[in-house]
Automatic annotation (TrEMBL):
<keyword id="KW-0067">ATP-binding</keyword>
<feature type="domain" description="ABC transporter">
    <location>
        <begin position="486"/>
        <end position="787"/>
    </location>
</feature>
<protein>
    <recommendedName>
        <fullName>UvrABC system protein A</fullName>
    </recommendedName>
</protein>
<keyword id="KW-0677">Repeat</keyword>
<dbReference type="InterPro" id="IPR003439">
    <property type="entry name" value="ABC_transporter-like_ATP-bd"/>
</dbReference>
<keyword id="KW-0963">Cytoplasm</keyword>
<feature type="region of interest" description="Disordered">
    <location>
        <begin position="1"/>
        <end position="20"/>
    </location>
</feature>
<keyword id="KW-0238">DNA-binding</keyword>
<comment type="similarity">
    <text>Belongs to the ABC transporter superfamily. UvrA family.</text>
</comment>
<keyword id="KW-0227">DNA damage</keyword>
<keyword id="KW-0228">DNA excision</keyword>
<keyword id="KW-0547">Nucleotide-binding</keyword>
<dbReference type="Pfam" id="PF00005">
    <property type="entry name" value="ABC_tran"/>
</dbReference>
<keyword id="KW-0234">DNA repair</keyword>
<keyword id="KW-0267">Excision nuclease</keyword>
<dbReference type="InterPro" id="IPR027417">
    <property type="entry name" value="P-loop_NTPase"/>
</dbReference>
Amino acid sequence: MSKATTTDGRSPGPHLADSHDVIRVHGARENNLKDVSIEIPKRRLTVFTGVSGSGKSSLVFDTIAAESQRLINETYSAFLQGFMPNRARPEVDVLDGLTTAIAVDQQRMGGDPRSTVGTATDANAMLRILFSRLAEPHIGPPSAYSFNTASVSASGGIRVDRGAEKTKTVKATFSRTGGMCTRCEGRGKVSDIDLTQLYDDTKSIAEGAFTIPGWKSDNVWTVGLYAQSGFLDPNKPIRRFTKKEMRDFLYGEPTKVKVNGVNLTYEGLIPKIQKSFLSKDKEAMQPHIRAFVERAVTFTTCPECDGTRLAEAARTSRIGKVSIADACAMEIRDLAEWVRSLDEPSVTPLLTALQGTLDSFVEIGLGYLSLDRPAGTLSGGEAQRVKMIRHLGSSLTDVTYVFDEPTIGLHPHDIQRMNDLLLRLRDKGNTVLVVEHKPEAIAIADHVVDLGPGAGTAGGTVCFEGTVEGLRAADTVTGRHLDDRARLKETVREATGALEIWGASANNLRDVDVDIPLGVLTVVTGVAGSGKSSLLHGSIPSDAGVISVDQSPIKGSRRSNPATYTGLLDPIRKAFAKVNGVKPALFSANSEGACPTCNGAGVIYVDLGMMAGVDTPCEDCEGKRFQASVLEYHLGGRDISEVLAMSVTEAEEFFGTGEARTPAAHRILERLADVGLGYLTLGQPLTTLSGGERQRLKLATHMADKGGIYVLDEPTTGLHLADVEQLLGLLDRLVDSGKSVIVIEHHQAVMAHADWIIDLGPGAGHDGGRVVFEGTPAALVADRSTLTGQHLAAYVGA
C-alpha cells in the first residue's frame, strides 16, 4: 500500500494521536510526595530508584497505577462497581496520558490452606477438565477431580408454582461428584491435639489440672464449668476417670447446665479448645497463647489421602499411569513434558493452552515448583513471578505494567532472565514501570527516575531524571552508590560451635548433612528453588532456640503502628501517666483516651456504596485520635499525638535526654534505628509498610529476645544500595554481641561480608537440594565451581 499523501502530493506531518507519548504527572502529593511533577516516556522501561521510604511506591503504585485502575472501574455499570474495590482519587493535580495499568506487586498470596500454585493460576482448572475427558475409569465432570469440591447428594419434595395452576409438590434429586477427601476436607493434613499440653492427668480439676493459658481455678466459664457441670468428679485425678467420664470430658456434646445460678453450655474439652484457639488467626494471638497453640497442636499428613487432598476415586482415575495427584506433585517442568507427550486431537485446544501456561512457569524460572505447593508458602518474589505468568503470553499492547522489585528472591544467575522478560514486555509496545534497587536491573532502563534525597519527610522529591549513565554521574545517593562493590573480608571469625543438621530431606533436599557454624555470620545461598528455605526453616530442630525472622505479613489493622507492634507505646504511656499523675489508659487511642467522635481512628469513614468511600479527618480531634482533655497532658513539652507524629530518629533523641528521658522506650527506638527504620513515624499504620520494612520491624522486635541464633530471610529486600552497608554493620554488631546469625541471601555484598558460606544447588527443584560448597567467601571465589562462586568473583572483581 502506498503512503498516504496530501492533495498537493506531500507526505502529511505526524498524526496528532502520535503526540501522546508521555505519562504526565503534575503536583503529586500522595503520602510523602512533595508536589512531584514528571513526564514518563511511554513504550519504554522506566526504573524508579531511591532509598527505602523515599516515595517510589507512592508515585508509581499509589498515584499512577491507582488512578488508572480507578478510571477503568468507572467505565463499568454502577451494579458491577458495587462488587469491585473502591478507590479514591490520589492526591495529584494532573495525570495525563494514562493507559490501562496492571500492577504486579510482591504481596504474598493468601495463606488459605486450600490455595495452591495450581488453583492460584489456571493450571489446575485446565488439568481437571483434561482428566474429566481422558482419564480412565471415568468418574464424572471436572469437579470430581477438585479437592475443594465435596460430593453431595439430596432428594425430597419441592414445591413448584406453575402459572395459574396450584402449587404442586414434585420429587427432585440432586447430586454433585466432588474430589475432596472427606477425612481432611481437602487440606491434606489433619490436626492432632497433644492432651498432655492441656492438663496434668495426675491432678484433679479441683487441684488445678488444667495447663491452658487463662484457665484459672476461679474462672466460672472454663474451670468452674467442668468442675460443677455434674458430668465429672472434680476431686478425682483425671487419669482415674471412667471411659464415660473421659468421653464426656474430651468429646461431650454441647449441653445446657447451670453453674452458680448461671446458664452455661457444657461441651467437651477438644471442641472447646478448637473453637477457643484453633479457629483464630495464630499471628494475631498474644505470644504466650501462640506458643501454647504451637506446643499443643500438631499437623500430620492425612492418612487417608496421603496428603494429596483427593478422594479415592480421583486418585485412581488415570491418564496412562498418571493420576491428577501425580500430575500436581510433579515439578512443573516435568509436567510440561508429560503434557507435551499427550496426543489427543479431541482436546488439542486445551492441551495447547495448558502447555502455554506450564511453559511460562519454566520460562520465568519457576519450573521447580509443583502445582500442589501451598500458595502461602511462596516467597514474595515467587508470588510476584506467579502473578506475571498470565501476562507473558498476552496479546495486549499499550498497557502499563507496574512491578515492585521483580528481582526479589532471585540469584544473580536468574536476574538476567527477569531482565529479558521485562524487555520483552516493553518491546511488544508496553510501558514498563519498575521500582528497583539492584544495579543489574537499573542497568537495562531506558529512563531512570531517582527519588529522595532521604526517606519519609526527608524524601518525596525527584532528585534525578534521565539515563542510567546520567544517574551514574549525578550527585545523588543512588548515583554515588550505583557502582559500590563490597570487598572480601581479609580475616573471618572463628566458629564457637556448630548447629548440626543430619539427614535433611524436606521438599527437594537430598538427605543433606551439614554443620552450620555458630558465633559467626553464615550466609546460605543458591539459585531460587535450590532448597535454602527448606534447609533452614524446615530442617533445623525445634529445640535449637532459633529466632526466625521472615517476610510473612504482619497482621494488623489501620490502628496498628510501629509503636504498638514493638511494645514502644507501653513505656511511653507510663511515662506520660507518671509525669501527669493520671492513668496510662488515657494515652491509648484504642482505650480511654480515644476521641469519642471517631473512636480513636482519627478519620470519619463514609461508605458511598459503588463509589469510593471517603475518609475525612475527624473535626473534633482534627485527626489526632485523642480527646482534647488528653492532649493537655505533656511530656517534655509534647503531647501524645505530637510524640506519635515523630520519626524514630526524632523520638530516639527526645526520649534519650531531658525530662522525657525513658530508657525502656529509648532501647526500642535504638533497635528500630539500627535496622534502618529511622525515617518511619511512630504512628504510621502498619498497612502502609513494604515487605522489607515489615521484616526489619520484626527483626527490631526480636533483637530483644533471649535466643542466641537468628535466621534472617533475605534482609536486604527493599533496601537501597546505601542502606546495605548499614545492615552489614547491624549483622556484625549482632555477631559481636555473642549471637549466631544465619542469613538466606542472594545479595553479593552480604555474601562477601560473610564469615562462612553454604551454597546449595547446583540447580533448582530436583536439580538442587545438595550442598555444593562450604567455606569462606574467599575460598568460594577462588574455587569458582558453582554459579554463586562465578557471580561473586565477577562482583568483587577477582
